[in-house]
UniProtKB/TrEMBL annotation:
A Pfam family hit: Tyr_Deacylase
SUPFAM superfamilies cross-referenced by the UniProt entry: DTD-like (SSF69500)
Family: Belongs to the DTD family.
GO molecular function annotations of the record: D-tyrosyl-tRNA(Tyr) deacylase activity; Gly-tRNA(Ala) deacylase activity; tRNA binding
Record protein name field: D-aminoacyl-tRNA deacylase
Compartment list: Cytoplasm
NCBIfam families attached to this UniProt entry: D-aminoacyl-tRNA deacylase
Compositionally biased spans, kind Basic and acidic residues: 156-167, 178-189
Catalytic activity: glycyl-tRNA(Ala) + H2O = tRNA(Ala) + glycine + H(+); a D-aminoacyl-tRNA + H2O = a tRNA + a D-alpha-amino acid + H(+)
Protein EC: 3.1.1.96
Keywords on record: Cytoplasm, Hydrolase, RNA-binding, tRNA-binding
Amino acid sequence: MKAVIQRVTRASVTVGGEQISSIGRGLCVLLGISVTDTQKDADYMVRKILNLRVFEDECGRSWSRSVMDGGLEVLFVSQFTLQSVLKGNKPDYHAAMPAELAQPFYNSILEQLREAYKPDLVKDGQFGAKMQVLIENDGPVTIQLESPPSPTDPKLLSKQEKQQQRKEKTRSKAPSESSREKAAQRSRGEPSASSGAEGDLSSEREP
């Protein structure tokens, strides 16, 4: 799951020439859902969005307060193009979750955000509509956020497998320290064993 989070002095969404939502000072969040996203990704995003410290405190210190600390507004906008992959110069959207699955998932994230904060301070656009989004970036401050890959992520698994293969090759090429020590002990021990045996025989032959 990917998000572009902007600190704004104001932001609004217009559909078909009609403004459907607007906020004053706060955060405008563009959210892109991928085909592999789960509730764990949603939990991460909600927590980070609400606790991201990009506002100053009452003493003017920057990066001290979150949107929750200041009681500020959030404008949440679905943005599947964040999941695009360029093929040449043309964006490909196969990594984005299909609309019929993404819409209920997006709505559940929006509801989760409202439950964790104040419902009246969380606004949203219109899923699937052609929107005009007005963003007056304050700073400018823009944060790119991506949920951590899960252990089942194919890219991560491939990387882990390659690392394991490299370790196994290294082990097979170089004998272990304990193997080298045992071999050295055997080479040192064999002559002395022979010497001891011969000594015993000679003592038996003595009158």
